[in-house]
Amino acid sequence: MAETEHRPTNFIRQIIDKDLANGLHTTVHTRFPPEPNGYLHIGHAKSICLNFGIADDYSGRCNLRFDDTNPEKENIDYVHSIMNDVQWLGYQWDGDVRYSSDYFQQLHDYAVELIEKGLAYVDFSSQEQMREMRGTLTEPGTNSPYRDTSVEENLTHFEKMTNGHYEEGQCCLRAKIDMTSPFMCMRDPVLYRVKFAHHHQTGDSWCIYPMYDFTHCISDAIEGITHSLCTLEFQDNRRLYDWVIENISIDTTPRQYEFSRLNLEYTVLSKRKLIQLVDENHVAGWDDPRMPTIAGLRRRGYTPASVREFCARIGVTKMDNLVEMGMLEACIRDDLNANAPRAMAVLDPIKVVIENFPEDQVEELTAPRHPNREELGHRTVPFSREVYIEAEDFRESANKKFKRLVLGKEVRLRNAYVIKAERFEQDEQGNVTTVYCSYDPDTLGKDPADGRKVKGVIHWVSAQHALPAEFRLYDRLFTLPNPAAAENFVEAINPDSLSVVTGWVEPSLANAAECDAFQFERTGYFCVDKESGEAKMVFNRTVGLRDSWAKIAD
């Protein structure tokens, strides 16, 4: 990390600075340990940016290690999606991808060591019996009748577990700690359980699988992790983390530090709830642009830089809070305002016929791709006798605040001419279908010669050249700021979270590729969806030009 580089501090960085200054560590080694049982979401992005960002800033290393100890809920597709998300965010893990399953034999050996030290035993109690013996937050637990089984018998039973002689649920290996501990995680927690499940990495080599709390700390120690960062729900589990490390023969001693998890308005970040949204078809998959998954954000048009900036702005603390959705939207709005090329699209079209423009004439006009970035160059925009404008941009009559097209008055077409509305046609329902106009041919790129002022500017596309397009207008998935607190969060789903309209885009977008982002002038920021094709382009609205929700709140 360069000496002159500015980076905001937080309590974790302060701990690292102190450790390095005191010589406790000479380098920083972190890890990101996702469980491959679903897609990553924006909360995981916070952890990714923290772990990989710290490693980058301190010229250290960060491992990507899959916590793959529950094969029934995991699959290789999730592994690949997580790897893709980490790289999309702009990070690269140190060395090869790691798996907890890489250490299954070592974990097994450490379990045997605990048994030999009289610190673990095989329990044949049922799950219901174990729950009853565990006690409550106000009442201590009671010892299992198997707690004092001899070391020799426990070794025999554990070997039988390992070799598949016991059925699932028949027994488990538990740590022998303290059934009266005020911390529930220390009341003889389960270390291993029997599962006859095919594993995506180890196949059918094992029929017993270690629990997360036993696996995680040992994996950290094996990999030489210096600072093991996790969210606050694992705060009490740090006692078990330390107990395991202290009672096995391993040289390194990693330390666990906890920070608050991300809670974001108008969404849910519980993996269980996200799976429910997908399984019950409330959304169109894990990458539905309404989902808070990294895949969903990417498809909606969020950029890696905007997600990293969001994670930087919310900071790292031990204080739980609910982050405003507007903060995330501000990050992508700032990014796209600075970087997204401009284009014109009409989402609710009515036709404008410029009667004094020659019927067979087409002018090739030039427009900047970005108003502040000359290096992006210019685009060609065809102009013809018939164009489409937004229906809301025309009124038969209006007050002075309406600076768009009004009958008998003038407006400028963006990067083109000044036109005047002369008359219009309506359908049987009274909707305007066509506006007939005249244009001033001496107003291309300049004000009218007689000095009259034309204040309004509207966007348009040539009816002859425009490309048909579908626009998917996404809004917040839930109507409540904190849907997770609702009795049934599904009932809080916003029925208007997606609306689909068809319209037109300028022809310069013909070769736009998936995920290409644009500011559709006066409309919002959009990106090309993966379902876009030659027959019909498909654009997802990423975010509006302004924070409309803030206005509603005010």
Summarize this, please?
The chain is an alpha/beta fold and 554 residues long.
Description:
Helix content is 26%, strand content 24%. The model is unreliable at 1-5 (pLDDT under 50). The chain is α/β, with parallel strands linked by helices. Strands 12-27-28-29-25-26-13 form a 7-stranded mixed beta sheet. The chain has 3 domains: 11-261, Rossmann fold (3-Layer(aba) Sandwich), CATH 3.40.50.620; 271-341 and 469-553, Orthogonal Bundle (Glutamyl-tRNA Synthetase, domain 2); 345-459, Ribosomal Protein L25, Chain P.
Topology:
Blueprint: H1 11-21, E1 29-32, H2 42-57, E2 61-66, H3 76-88, E3 98-99, H4 104-116, E4 120-123, H5 127-134, H6 151-162, E5 172-175, E6 190-194, E7 208-210, H7 212-223, E8 227-231, H8 238-246, E9 255-259, E10 263-264, H9 271-279, H10 294-300, H11 304-314, E11 322-323, H12 325-339, E12 342-343, E13 345-346, E14 349-354, E15 363-368, E16 378-383, E17 386-390, E18 394-395, E19 405-406, E20 410-413, E21 418-426, E22 432-440, E23 457-458, E24 461-462, E25 467-474, E26 498-505, E27 517-520, E28 524-528, E29 537-543, H13 548-553
Parallel strand pairs: 1-2, 2-3, 8-9, 10-11, 12-27, 14-22, 18-19, 20-23, 25-29
Antiparallel strand pairs: 4-5, 5-6, 6-7, 13-26, 14-17, 15-16, 17-24, 20-21, 21-22, 25-26, 27-28, 28-29
Helix pairs in contact: 2-11, 7-8, 11-12
